[in-house]
Amino acid sequence: MEEEMISVSELIQRLAMTDAVFYSDGGTKPCAACALFTAGSMKNGRPPVPRRLSNGHLLWVADLSDAGKIDTEMMPEAEEGAELLLFFRKRPRQKIAFEALFPGAGITVLAADIPFEVLFSQIQQLTVCEMRGITYKAALAESLFEKKSLKEIVDQAADMLKSPVILTTSAYRVLAMNDAGLAFQDPVWDAAYETGYCDAASIQHFESENITTQVQKTSSAFVLDTGLAREIPRILQKIEAFGRISAYIGVFQISHAFNESDLQTVDLICMALSVLMEKTPAELDNTSEICQSILSDLLSGSIKSATLLGDRIRSAFWKPLPFFRCAALIPVDETKGIVNADYLIRYLTRQIPYSRTILAGNGLMVLLNFQESGKKEPFEKELAAVAQEYRLRIGISNEFRDLIRLRGYYRTSCMASSVIRKLPAADPVIYFSDVVFYTLADRIPEEDKAAYVQTAYTRLEEYDSKNHTEFCRTLAVYIESGCSSALSSSRLFIHRNTMTHRLEKIESVCGIDIRNGKELLYFYYSLKAAEWNVTE
Fold this sequence. Notes:
Layout: E1 6-7, H1 8-14, E2 21-25, E3 30-31, E4 33-36, E5 52-53, E6 58-63, E7 77-78, E8 83-88, H2 98-101, E9 106-111, H3 116-126, H4 134-145, H5 150-161, E10 165-169, E11 174-178, H6 187-195, H7 200-208, H8 211-217, E12 222-224, E13 234-241, E14 244-252, H9 260-279, H10 290-300, H11 306-315, E15 323-331, H12 341-351, E16 356-360, E17 363-370, H13 379-390, E18 392-396, H14 406-422, E19 429-431, H15 432-442, H16 449-452, H17 455-467, H18 471-480, H19 485-492, H20 496-510, H21 517-535
Helix pairs in contact: 3-4, 4-5, 4-9, 5-9, 7-11, 10-14, 14-15, 15-21, 18-19, 18-20, 18-21, 19-20
């Protein structure tokens, strides 16, 4: 087979780039294919992809033109005997000890004023005759340069392998799938196709058969043909991005038996996906924990069915308590976000029992979960401390039981947090129920606000202004005291008879009937709307 391969030195000659080589320590080993690898970036601290360059009939190619200061810690580890071709657009001014960067590897370095993608495409065309699928591997590289989507790469993979391919996040949400035009039945595939997620039964199989652990610990793609995959074997592999496992890929054996070439192709596909995922992080989950992924999908509106929600909760082995509230944690300076957000997520999870915290917009969403209705401790104290330390505005929703409605309750918690910003004297933690009238008033167009105010309130407010009385406040306290003269007089520090006299005077001034609940509610709303308008 070696006579059908090509060495790096032969490759350089065919490319007519002998003069471009300025360092060579190897180049004689025959190669059957080439693959991209990336150096870590000194600027963003991202790790190299892949982290280890394997020895074999594979030429590893990298563009170091924009790598910044070369540092051994930001380079992948090369196995002894691995063959590398390093490219610079311009010859570096600094002296680089390439043998120290990749000890034991064969290294060829060249500098040429041509686009790297053009060079890589030419290398792809010259390497390999014997290994099946080499033209498809060039298409993968082209996908990266053209910034194609994850779906397009999965479609390419299905075409290359002539097999169905599925790509999921590490929380088992489907990112893309393609059946390669083949009809087959498999419980994992069917559930993912129908719901967009691996279902609870599938995930239970992954765990009980140690499939997930095997994928996580294995460095290369492998064929699973036992247990869940007894009838339909499948190639499995993980995709790493941002220094962690971010996704899984599965290839189903339908039309032909898998061979070593298929495994190598899947590894190359995973490398391409890893690079693309770091370029498009929005397509990934914010977290790998399944129950937190559920919350993210609820907020985005991806989960609309209670049946699907129930299945995903079971797949997470999550047994939530009966009652919920959600809290929106928004930074006072919304342009900066929350400092050390990852640490704060872990802290809140530890400090508030049964809670779940996720990133949401430029802040955090905390799902508060408790056994008894009306429960506030211990989360109220903890949230107040966090609000002060991290300079946050925290709004808390009303209590609810149906988790499928989380999105709406989260919106109300965000409304409550926005009220804090407009009310200077407000506490940093506030409940939506305490500011609901403010949020309603905020939705009224400026030019229409006067039309929504109760006439009785307007009369009483004008009387107070003219006569320096506090009848509006008196009636508000009366309403907030459950229309109890005894309680309201106590709160106002006046005699009960004085309270009775004031109420009679209020009725005569503005014409309101204090025994009419609708009129009192309308008055109270008008009062809160007026307070809100003053803040604006």
